[in-house]
Amino acid sequence: MHAWPASEVPALPGQGRDLRIHDTATGGLVTLDPGPVARIYVCGITPYDATHLGHAATYNAFDLVQRVWLDTKRQVHYVQNVTDVDDPLLERAERDNVDWVALAEKETALFREDMTALRMLPPRHYIGAVEAIPGIVPLVERLREAGAAYELDGDIYFSVESDPHFGQVSHLDAAAMRLLSAERGGDPDRPGKKNPLDPMLWMAARPGEPSWDGGSLGRGRPGWHIECVAIALDHLGMGFDVQGGGSDLAFPHHEMGASHAQVLTGEFPMAKAYVHAGMVALHGEKMSKSKGNLVFVSQLRRDGVDPAAIRLALLAHHYRTDWEYTDDVLREAVARLDRWRAAVSRPDGPPAEALVEEIRDALANDLDAPTALAAVDRWAAAQQEHGGTDIGAPGVVSRAVDALLGVAL
What we know:
This protein has helices at residues 53-71, 87-96, 100-117, 129-145, 174-183, 224-235, 250-265, 297-302, 307-315, 327-344, 353-364, 369-386, 393-405; strands at 20-23, 28-31, 37-42, 75-82, 125-128, 149-152, 155-158, 200-204, 220-222, 240-246, 271-277, 280-282, 285-286, 323-324, 348-349, 390-391.
């Protein structure tokens, strides 16, 4: 599966800062010190409704991570999946009386278009669950051979008790885990499971549903968590720098994935930091496909909204906070974009070197984009009120905003 084209990231003078970021597993800020190549895995979409602003906010956060690393002169090895076979996708295809493969391809293509428009840097490897199946099957077989998986009516389950570190990503108690498991794709009430929290690794073929040859596992399809584990281990290995996604993935998805990988490899942890973006709400409730309260990037673009303004609307909120989308949020972003573009349209202006360092400092401090935006606002206001004599300063600002914030002025 191919990703989307990369926008050019301008090189800036000076040196970026190492990133301090909130790690869900430790509950505090950690300073990441990758080697020459920083490694990040971000969980991708299930392509049956793409791309709403909740998606965009999540991928914007991890785009900032990449930009901070690139500014430190590192390379970035970014991997993202597409869950292109799963119950929600099959259910939507049946509801709409369309082929599930065609639906997945259509929504994935739309996601690519939106990511391109928003200037999100693409992953080096963009892998669908279906194409990952040949690598998933051996992992499930290994877990079963190690006694960490068991069969139940043809389905294969992972035993969470096989991982002594289980629970160290989300730090939830058993009652909370059980509740979230039921809400987020698990089946804690299924009779016969060793532990209600045990997640499915391989689902035996069901009538009328797609299935693949699973070798000794029989025909079926992979569970949700093992999909990401197979892709991450194949392309990044253990101990990569950041495992990312929305806050609703901390449990069960990232918790289960970590346990799968740790049992498979005998190493801990799977990722050095588990980083989670907040949720975006509309009309008082989290944007949700099931509720239908979604604002789509593609619709905003069709309505004539500049993608740079959409990106500024996302950047105006700290990535870890939950926030609510309103028309005012977008209006403020459009006005900000207009002010910034007017400010950089002049041949000279106030000195810009200190501003570049302010943006760097803000982003290195747990991706504090709102503080970075406020710094650019001050420079633009000074340009508007007093102008300046630093020839080339507007160009420096324009390149910095593009390189570090992903906003093309």
